[in-house]
Amino acid sequence: MRPIVILTESTVASYGVIGTLYQETFRAMGIDSTLLPYPTDRAPRVPRGAIVLHNTLGFRFAPVAGAINVAVPYHEWSRYPPEWSARLSGFDDVWAASTYLETVLRKSGVTSPVRFAPPALDLRPPRAKSSWKPHRPFRFLFVGAPHFRKGHHLLIEGFRIVGAGAAATLTIKTSADCPWTVGDRGIRVIAERWPLDRLWRVYRAHDAFVSASLGEGLGLGVAEAMLARLPVATNRWGGHTNLVAPGGYVRIPHRLVPQPFCSRPDFYAPGQQCALSSPDSVASAMEAMLAMHAPAREEQAECAHAHVVSRFGFSAASVRLHDALGRL
To answer: In whole numbers, what is the pLDDT of the chain averaged over residues?
Structure first.
């Protein structure tokens, strides 16, 4: 086996998670790999002939000379900028996190082989919930970066519509660089970086996970909540389409709308769309979860857990990655 090097974007927390998950998946497969931060000021030094996974942002993708280069993009919008697609077309292979992203990359003009080959998500499974009797007050949770794309504003407005009379709280676990605060009673914003085991405890300590995200390449927060057997409400668009299953979540309706904002102009491509849910829709989903009896929440959580493990568990992921490596 050729040496495998995983170059991961250390400046983005979720990319760091993905890089670690690939390394742990390879290790469970009996394959050695090296995990390195994506360099910013020089070409990475890797063994000649190595298989190099590039897990970074679209404008930074650059193949390493003398290596077999695999791009691992996770960007979420429905169309990639032409310059990004051109960069990705210079790679030997492109591994998509979801079948949604696989389709997006092909439609965006990527000419390299594109295949669905995410890492396993269940190698460090949380100690799952064992009781679905709700807390008093009922505890809603969301975990995600402080970016507008995550839909925090929609989630907060939806919670406000539900109102304090619903006897519920909302916890938003975000990153330490969060620039905003929320003064509403019942809403707690945790802007800290935590180790995974502490984060798992937060999932278990809540009654439901709600995501109003406008778009996800995969949706790690939703996947983690489902692995923790925490009932979930979210939309069915983007990477979520691989995670959700009938009976396994409360669906938040959305409209496909032109992508109204971008982090940077060079992230934008004409025709980009996102999934916009109204605060009323978010509130309705929250009210539905409040009204569910404990056995119904348990049944939903078990259904979601089984579905995620079947698609993203080690058994499925290792088969896909063995095939992808064999094709290289």
So the answer is: 94
CA atoms within 13 A on the CB side of 85: 19
Which CA distances in Å does 238 have to 175, 213, 263, 298?
Answer: 23, 10, 18, 26
Which residue ranges form the domains of the chain, and what is each CATH number? 4-120+313-327 (3.40.50.2000), 138-311 (3.40.50.2000)
Whether pTM exceeds 0.85: yes
- How far is Cα 166 from Cα 139, in angstroms, rounded to an integer? 11
Examine the pLDDT at 43 and tell me if it is beyond 80: no
Q: For residues 322 and 320, give the distance between their C-alpha atoms in angstroms, rounded to a whole number.
A: 6
